[in-house]
Amino acid sequence: MAVLAMTGAGIAQPAKPAPLGSFRVDLAKTSVSGLSAGGFMATQFHVANSASVIGVGVVAGGAYLCAAENPLLAAACMQANGFWPQAQALYEQAVPLAGLGRIDPLEGVKSARVYLFSGRNDMIVSTAAVDAVQDFYRAAKVPANQIRYEKGIEAGHGFIAPGGPNDCNANRPPYVNACGTYDQAGQILSHVYGGLNPPVSEPRAAVPFDQTPFLGADGSDRSGLADTGYVHVPPACAGGAACAVHVVFHGCRQSAASVGDAVTTAAGYNQWAANNNLIVLYPQMAEGRPGNPLGCWDWRGTTGQDYATRSGAQIAAINAMLKTLAGQR
Questions:
Q1: Among the listed ranges 77-81, 206-210, 252-256, which one has the minimum average pLDDT value?
Q2: Is 135 known to be catalytic?
Q3: Active site residue 157
């Protein structure tokens, strides 16, 4: 019998979760999404891996390289004061990274399906900041019909899911808000993958897996990842069907250790994944550590100058998880 431990949110789980499994995964159909710092991370991960990441959902996040490793620019990235960010300049900073092979060729970004969201009552990341994400993708020559931008909902800061624990206009943990019937996970996944089968009514919970083998995927221990991550594997994928992977990056103060299953189940991704041969990966950041007490993904260069490239500690760790899911590691 497994020994159980209690998380900060009071969820019983194995003290030592099982290793991440391997399945029949097509990594060329990977997609990502995230909220806030996780939205910044989704953009970073997509641009760094655009040859295999076919779509991205950015919920209250910002543009690639926005902070430029300068903490003084972080506030401007979140509120966009007119001076910064400048999307064309950020795109031009990405060009030499691609030339050096530190990120995938930017040609791959053009084919991406991009979903953007900014709530009209978001008090943490402004609509102007998300506008800069749209401008970055336009600078990368993503066609307008491949970008879906929703900014007309009176939402606060959070993922939007029917039955979410917060009111629509909330700006507080667990940062999962209910705005009527608006189903953000379904909007993101449908935009990326096209026509999908209907969601199931009762989603299966994501299950924990051992993240410790991935903490030093870049050859160091800079990632700041928690010891435990979560993954939802539909029965068809577990049974050998060909499947894609969608990666969900939580926001600050939004790890499962802090908010329980508010993201890993209640945000709604698993309901869509179950009928559509889609594995959902929920990597987790550790909270309460020096330098990153809120458990944010790194979009400012705190883990090193390579933070926004394939060799960055966090991006390398997620890529290693994806390769494991595909049986390539």
A1: 77-81
A2: no
A3: yes
